[in-house]
Each structure stands twice: as C-alpha cells, then as structure tokens.
Protein: ABC transporter ATP-binding protein
Organism: Streptacidiphilus cavernicola
Amino acid sequence: TEAVLEVRGLCVDYGVGANAVRAVTDASLTLHRGEVLGLAGESGSGKSTLAYALTRLLRAPGVISGGEVLFHNRPHGGDPDGVSYAETVDLLAADMVKLRQIRWSQLAVVFQSAMHALNPVARIDAQLTDVLKAHRRQMDAAARRDRAVELLRMVGISADRLRSYPHELSGGMRQRVMIAMALALEPQIVIMDEPTTALDVVTQREILEELMLLRERLGFAIVFITHDLSLLIELADSIAIMYAGRIVERAGADELFHAPRHPYSLGLLNSFPALHGAKVRMEGIPGSPPSLTALPGGCAFHPRCSFAVDRCRTDVPELVLPAAESAQAARLAGDRPDQPRVAACWLQ
Ligand code: ATP
Ligand code: MG
C-alpha cells in the first residue's frame, strides 16, 4: 500500500551549540496508509521526541536539526477549511497556515500527557463540540452534539458521561476522550504516545484494541508508541525499535518476533512477559541506556551487547532492506535509500 507519512533522516537536538545533545539521530520511517506502526524502546530512547518533532509540536530547548517528514495528504473532503486535492507536504518545511490545516484534521496526536491535555474546567461534551465548532463550521449545535455523542460511543463512553468534568473520569476514560477528540475530524493519521505510568497494561491493551477496530472502520493509520513490545507484536503491522535516539531495527511484527536482527530487539523481546508485565524491567538486557551526553561510539548498544565485536565500537550497523521488502521497494521506487529499512547487525 502507499505511504501516508515518510520520515527521512530526522535529527533532533536538545539545546544548541556546545551544550546540545542529540536525542534523535537520523531516524527514517515509512507509515503506510491504514497500517499500525509500533514504536518501542526503553525510557529515554527518543520516542516522544520523534513524535513531537514530526508533528512540529516540539518545544524549546528541542530543535529539529535535519531531515524531512513527508505527509501524503489524500483529503476525504470533510474539512471545509482544508485542501480538497491530493498533495505532499514536508511538515518540517510547512508554514503555520499549512500546519494548522493538517494537524488535528488529518494528523491527530494523543500525547503521553493526555491527562493534562484536557481542559480541567470544561465538561467533556464542551471540549468535543469545541473541536467541531472550530473545524466544522457548517455543523449546527444539534449536529455537533449528535456527533459528540457518537464519538464518545465509538470509544466506549456512554452519553451520560457527556456532562462530566475530566477529574470525574478515570485515567482510561480520559484517554478515551482524548482519542474521541483525535478522531473527531476523521484524520488520516493518529499518533498515540502511551501514558506509561498512568494506565495499567490491561487498560492500555483494551484501548489499543478499540483503536484498532476503529481503524478498520475509518481507515486511518496509527503510530503507537509504547514500552510494551509484546503488545505491538500482537497488534501492530510493523514495528520500529529505538535505542539511544536511533532506530536500530524496523520490521514487520511477525518478522521481528520470529527473526529479530538487532541484539537490542532480541533483548527487548526477552524482557517482556507475554501479557501482564506491570513494570518495565529489562531482564534480558544487562545495564542501562547511556546518557545522551556520553554516547558510546559506534553502535551505542555495544557496551550492553553480548554479541558485540570490535567493529561495534567504531561503526553503526547499517540499516538495509530486508530481502522481501527490498524486492518490492525496488519495484516501487527504484533503489531509494529512504525506503523502510531494517537494521542488519553484521553479526547475523
Ligand atoms: P519514555 O518512554 O520515558 O517516554 P522516550 O523514549 O519518549 O521515553 P524522550 O522523552 O523522547 O524519550 O527523551 C529522549 C531523550 O531526550 C532523553 O534522554 C531525555 O532526557 C531527553 N530530553 C527530553 N526532553 C528534554 C528536554 N526538554 N530537555 C533536554 N533533554 C530532554
Ligand atoms: Mg515518551
């Protein structure tokens, strides 16, 4: 299927000049229309930074220092303020007018801090209808209300909750409200950064499963960010693994599960009990991730890697196309270096 979002060579720093640390290094990803792409990696690996950067929601001291994020917009015509023709937009180069047309309407984000993203002094129905009021000017009040009820029902919240304030809802329900708001304008992409501490794994799984069902109905693509690789193995189509700011492997979910190529992916796979792992413990991997101010040379994972050889101290394993994808990619686009890539550690 065709790509809806292509991230190429994205680099993000915190700070500038001598004090800058690189939080995302040369990240490339392709999100296909309607697919679920999972992004996994230990705390601090740069997952949220990547998500904030590609949506241009990154705040100072974060700085995007390189790369492209191509959004292939295929508008479905529901948005009177948006464009009605197909276009490709580099989100990193787009002006604010363009970004406003795209964000929320076409590319919606549910961030890790969803709890704080809701207005604490506004009722749920008002927050939903405000989104519709701002972006769907042809809707009258009754239509907005109907739509708000429908959206909440879609995410499993009954209409009697419409008059609630955020603090009257559980963490899981607030997350569902955020998803309803994200889906209000029928976006082509939903990016969801898992709230790691606020929700238990069972609730998280339920919410992701519901999101998957909605995706089948509405056809949007999902980028789902989580610590829980086992969740992604089950539910995602493809998975990218981040370590110390780099995407070290990208593969289909089955492929990653059955034949991980990077030792870090293998370690992550071994770290997770199948379902009810409450806390993230990297039991399969000794040690902890490096500080960004003192990144090891070569492959940043090498000090923790039981397969490391001399070369790993100086060279970063190249990301290459896996055989199955490379044939398809070559057919589609010639031998472009920006196609979905998978790390092939030279050990395997
Ligand atoms: P988690 O799983 O805990 O959410 P993450 O993978 O989302 O982690 P990020 O929050 O993107 O990781 O952080 C990546 C790196 O950038 C970390 O080393 C973090 O300390 C650093 N970082 C994040 N925000 C800032 C900031 N505002 N200023 C400086 N450094 C930051
Ligand atoms: Mg994060």
The chain has one domain: 3-106+185-343.
